[in-house]
Each structure stands twice: as C-alpha cells, then as structure tokens.
Amino acid sequence: EAEVAQSPRYKITEKSQAVAFWCDPISGHATLYWYRQILGQGPELLVQFQDESVVDDSQLPKDRFSAERLKGVDSTLKIQPAELGDSAMYLCASSRQGSYNEQFFGPGTRLTVL
Amino acid sequence: KQEVTQIPAALSVPEGENLVLNCSFTDSAIYNLQWFRQDPGKGLTSLLLIQSSQREQTSGRLNASLDKSSGRSTLYIAASQPGDSATYLCAVVTGGGNKLTFGTGTQLKVEL
To answer: Using CA atoms, how far apart are residues A62 and A51, in angstroms rounded to an integer?
Structure first.
C-alpha cells in the first residue's frame, strides 16, 4: 500500500540551529501539504504545493521557514533559526491532482527545540 | 474564518458500547469533510471522506454523517474495541486550494 514517507521521525535541536525535514508523497500525487501540529491542537497548514509551485503559504513564517519541491515530487521544509515555540509535530500530506480530493498523511516528524 | 469544534474533548467507554463523536463547523459552505484517527505520537490515518453533496459514508464499524446546512457531522463507532482508543479529528475544506481546517479532536479510550 502506498504511503507518504517522512524523515527524520524525531529531531532534537537547540535554539538558533537550523533543521530540515523531508517528505516523499504517494507516487502520482501532484499536491503536497506541510502541516504543523502543536500538542493538544489540530494540525494547521503551513504550505501547499501543486507540482513544484506554491499554492498557499499564507501561514508560513517566512522569516525563518522555507519550503521547496524542486522537481514536483519530494519536498523539504527548513527552519532557520529554530525557536522554542517551533516544538511541534510536522506532518506532510499528499493528494491527487484536482479539487477536494482525500488527503493522506505521513507519520510526521516530532521536533523538540531546547 | 472557518472554525471547527469537537465535543467532547475526551470520552471513556466500556468495550462493546456504540458511541458518537461530534463535529461542528461555523461556515456551512464546505466542499468536503474528512475524519481522521491519530494514535499518540503518530501521523493521521484517514477514516472517511464525505463530499458536500453526500449525507453519509460507511466503512466497516464506522459511519459518518454530514448535515451541511446545520454545520454538523457525527462519527458513529459500533461495538467499540480497545484498539479503537485514539484521538479522532475532523477537518473540513472551505474555499479553494483543498486546505483542511481541523478541530482539536476527541480523545477516545475504550476500556476492557
């Protein structure tokens, strides 16, 4: 069964360091999403890609966060510098091209900033 | 701005009981609603997707209903099992782009 892959699963870093997360969507899924989930809350969208283009990054803190999907397949989310408030679960999801299709999520990366 | 609320925040039931989880949303102009399951420290598993034109969807012991006009959805779990223990999240798509707006979830514990 096809799944969304993410790595690393866990990341511990110190404040002001740089971190990067990787996501490989389900094969053939043109749309890729990065969500952030703070403990006890629902996920919130950070950025959405359609192929290699950004569709929505209105909630991405652009002063420290960046995301890319250069070849329209896998994607990287970077934080530099990390802050204490960035501690959260970072979830990647993908869906087929077209409107309002079901989203499938990966296992997530748990980030702890010390 | 769309807001999604899930009640109750936590629920504990004995094994075998049928139960209902509730989800409400403030903007009824949704395109679809999706129910997810999340185990502690894990990602989200999609359970059911209901398009705005549908009233309900079923998968095994799960049945989700949608009343778009009243801004409500319910997830019915029949004959609950300890393995159903998890957090259940509902999310809606409102407007273009397929962005999901999530509730804060209902933490379910099914006891032996």
So the answer is: 20
B59 touches chain A (CB under 8 A): no
CA-to-CA distance for A90 and A110, rounded, in angstroms? 6
Say whether B46 and A55 touch across the interface (CB within 8 A).
no
Q: Is A86 helix (H, G, I), strand (E, B) or coil?
A: helix
Strand order in the sheet with A65-68: A5-7, A19-24, A75-79, A65-68
Q: What is the mean pLDDT of chain A?
A: 94
Identify the pLDDT of residue B22. Answer: 97
Taking the Cβ of residue A18 and every Cβ of chain B, the question of whether any pair is shorter than 8 Å is answered with: no
Looking at the complex, report in whole angstroms how far the Cα of residue B49 sits from the nearest Cα belonging to chain A: 7
Model pLDDT for residues B54-111, shown as the tens digit of each residue:
999 999 999 999 999 999 999 999 999 999 999 999 999 987 778 899 999 999 999 9
Locate tokens 């804060």: which residue? B104
The answer to whether the beta carbons of residues B106 and B21 sit under 8 Å apart is yes
- Residues with Cβ within 8 Å of A103's Cβ and at least 6 positions away in sequence, in order, are A33, A93, A94, A95, B34, B46, B98, B100
How many Cβ pairs closer than 8 A exist between chain A and B? 62
B68-107 residues touching A, CB cutoff 8 A: 89, 91, 93, 96-100, 102-105
Q: Provide the CA B106 distance to its chain's centre, in angstroms.
A: 8
